Fold this sequence. Notes:
The protein is mostly helical.
Amino acid sequence: xxxxxxxxxxxxxxxxxxxxxxxxxxxxxxxxxxxxxxxxxxxxxxxxxxxxxxxxxxxxxxxxxxxxxxxxxxxxxxxxxxxxxxxxxxxxxxxxxxxxxxxxxxxxxxxxxxxxxxxxxxxxxxxxxx
Length: 130
C-alpha cells in the first residue's frame, strides 16, 4: 500500500509535467526542420541535467522515488511519439495529460477502496480474535 501510494502521488507531478516539457520541445520545432540543431542542443542539455541530478545524491529528489528517471521517460515518450514533420499538433499531448489524470483518479479510487476493505477486514479479524 505504501509503495502504491507513492506511485499514485508521483503521477501528477511526473507525468503531467513531463507532457508539458515535451510539449515545449515540440513547440520549439513547430514542424520546421531548420530548428533541429537548436532542438538537439536543448534536448541534450535537458537530458544531461536530469542525469546529473539523478547521479548526485544531494540533488536527487527525495520524496518521489526514481523521480529523475520517471521524468525523463515522461518527457521522451510523448516527444518521440507525437513529434513529427507533419506540423504542430497539440491534441496528442493534451490527450496524454487527460489519460494520465484519469489513471491517477482511477488508481486513487482503487487504493482508497483497497485501504477501506483491508481496514474493515482487519477490524473483523481483530473482533473474532477477542
